[in-house]
Amino acid sequence: KEIAFIFDLDGVIVDTAKYHFLAWRNLATQLGFEFTEAHNELLKGVSRIKSLEILLNIGKVQLSEEEKQKYLVQKNEEYLSFVNKMTSEEILPGVSNLLDYLDAHNIKYALGSASKNAPLILEKVGLYKRFSALVDGNDVSKAKPDPEVFLIGAKKLNMKPENCVVVEDAIAGVEAAKLANMKCVGIGDAEVLGKADVVFKDMTGFTSEFLNKLINN
Ligand code: BG6
Ligand code: MG
Is the ipTM of this complex over 0.90? Predict the structure, then answer.
């Protein structure tokens, strides 16, 4: 059976959550409150503007629209200062092997990310050219858990949703995949990502045994 993959970026291909954390934490410090790693969990898979809203809620800070825009730009500039130093060393374990397997079996794959920085990040780690299609935060109007990002991905790959496999580390992303009527592999904690069809601790879970079964099903 012909299948295709749609990958989330942050937390699946690379671990950029640590850079988002540093930039958001600095903003919180500047606004006079503490922002912890536990708080940062709430921002995974969430769009940039929604992330700021959550952060401001945590600090009980109210800002005008103008100030929000200013801090969003500032946060992103700091985030980009980390992204600009990224290299292929930051590709998460298991990812390169999986892409090699997919290429060898002529299985197409797309990116389905909420990040507006996704093309730059892929470029930095040397994976940009490998993807047949990219859908990122610039292409969608409705954030995950809305299925829009993955449905556009399927369309770009010319695949039916039911033949697509989404790989996601965020609850909102798993929900989006299921709403899109796609298979979903969760990356992380099985208790958190319970709605996924299968959950791996990390990307090394994609053994050739698992993949052979998937494509021969
Ligand atoms: C998601 C991340 O992939 O992209 C979120 O999990 C992030 O943490 C979102 O807020 C938007 O990213 P960016 O790069 O457009 O600010
Ligand atoms: Mg993610």
Answer: yes
